[in-house]
Structure formats: structure tokens, C-alpha cells
TrEMBL record:
InterPro entries reported for this sequence: LD-transpeptidase, LD_TPept_cat_dom, Transpep_catalytic_dom
PANTHER family reported for this sequence: L,D-TRANSPEPTIDASE, L,D-TRANSPEPTIDASE ERFK_SRFK-RELATED
Keywords per UniProt: Cell shape, Cell wall biogenesis/degradation, Glycosyltransferase, Hydrolase, Peptidoglycan synthesis, Signal, Transferase
One GO CC term, this protein: extracellular region
Gene3D superfamilies listed in its UniProt record: L,D-transpeptidase catalytic domain-like
Name by which UniProt lists this protein: L,D-transpeptidase
PROSITE patterns linked to this entry: LD_TPASE (PS52029), PROKAR_LIPOPROTEIN (PS51257)
GO biological process, one term: cell wall organization
Length: 207
């Protein structure tokens, strides 16, 4: 009986390793700490994240999450610095995020109006006035690993483009902090995962 139990445990451990998860623990069904290595995407090299320097709660994971919102809904908890992608059966994919700094916070409901891979970033005029060094990108910063929108962007609409994005960032150290001009930042490896899950038209709740 003990040998059988050990065999089951060993089998689960192998399955966990093969799925890219590093642990299955209380409150977390899967945690994808092993999924932050370098990769090549559309000809661009995404550098590895020194993930041990990112607090563990901000690593992508599948967690228990109770909500009346339908699967496919995106819920942004700006206080906790988490983004949830709602799954069926009381679960969600949880990502660590960076959010708007003081004076740039916002909340409300929107929808994913568009999705872009390796988007061009064009800073708005008011941002250039605050940060004149960005004037060189007034006609758009070309896509690439150093682009401010990272590897992917989801454009939020509410009776038109809100100007806010869910997007990747090369600044991994900003995850878990309030540093942006209002957009929601994810690690590039995480925004690719979210991009592949989220549909155009998906409801987005920011609170």
C-alpha cells in the first residue's frame, strides 16, 4: 500500500514537471515559475526573466477564484497587483502586474477592442510633455524587446479606444508596483499567455 502511494506521488511529480509547473500547493493548482526562460517569437528574442527576483505571488499560476463573471472575463485587481483570467469551475489564471502610479490610477469596465502582436508604441502628446525624452518616438517606437508595449498588447475600448492597454513590458522589476501611466503591465511571457487565451470582445473589469 505504501509503495502504491509513493508511485502515485512520483507520477504526479513527473506530470507536474512535464506541464511546466514547479509546484502544486495550497490555494494554487499550478504555478508556472519554469516558464520564464528566453524564447524566440516572430523573429524577436525575448530575454529570460530572473524570476527568483520576482516575488513568488506574482508568478503566473492557476488558482481558486470565485466570481459571477463568465469564463473569459479579465478582472484586474489594482490593489493586490493581480490580473485574473476567469476559467470554468471556480478557477482563474492569475498573473502579477504593474499598475498606474499615483495620479494615474483608474477603474471601470471595458472590452478588448483589438489585439496586436509586437505592437508599435506611440506615446501620447501629454506623455511627451511630461517626459520630453520620448519625443523621438512621437511617430511610433518600432516593435522589439525594448518596446514599451512589449510582445503583445490588448487594447481596451469603451465607446471607443480608452487609451489604456494590457501589455507586456521589458521592465520585469515593475511587476507588483505602481509605476505606469495607467496601463496594466505584464511580463512578456505572461502577456503572450494571456493574449492566446483572451478573445476580442472579452469583458475587462478594473477595480
Amino acid at each position: 500500500m505504501r509503495l502504491k502511494a509513493l508511485t502515485v506521488v512520483a507520477g504526479l511529480a513527473v506530470a507536474t514537471a512535464l506541464s511546466g509547473c514547479t509546484s502544486v500547493g495550497l490555494g494554487s493548482f499550478q504555478i508556472f515559475t519554469a516558464d520564464y526562460g528566453s524564447r524566440t517569437d516572430a523573429g524577436y528574442r525575448i530575454p529570460p526573466i530572473p524570476i527568483t527576483k520576482v516575488p513568488r505571488q506574482y508568478h503566473r499560476q492557476i488558482v481558486s477564484y470565485r466570481t459571477d463573471e463568465a469564463p473569459g472575463t479579465i478582472i484586474v485587481d489594482t490593489g493586490a497587483k493581480f490580473l485574473y483570467f476567469v476559467l470554468p469551475e471556480g478557477r482563474a489564471v492569475r498573473y502579477g502586474i504593474g499598475v498606474g502610479r499615483e495620479g494615474f490610477e483608474w477603474s471601470g469596465t471595458a472590452r478588448v477592442g483589438a489585439k496586436r502582436e509586437w505592437p508599435v508604441w506611440t506615446p501620447p502628446p501629454e506623455m511627451i510633455r511630461r517626459q520630453p525624452q520620448l519625443a523621438k518616438w512621437r511617430n511610433g517606437q518600432p516593435p522589439g524587446p525594448t518596446n514599451a508595449l512589449g510582445a503583445r498588447a490588448l487594447y481596451l475600448f469603451n465607446k471607443g479606444d480608452t487609451g489604456y492597454r494590457l501589455h507586456g513590458t521589458p521592465e520585469w522589476w515593475s511587476i507588483g508596483k505602481a509605476m505606469s501611466s495607467g496601463c496594466v503591465r505584464l511580463l512578456n511571457q505572461d502577456i503572450i499567455d494571456l493574449y492566446n487565451r483572451a478573445q476580442v470582445g472579452a469583458k475587462v473589469i478594473v477595480k
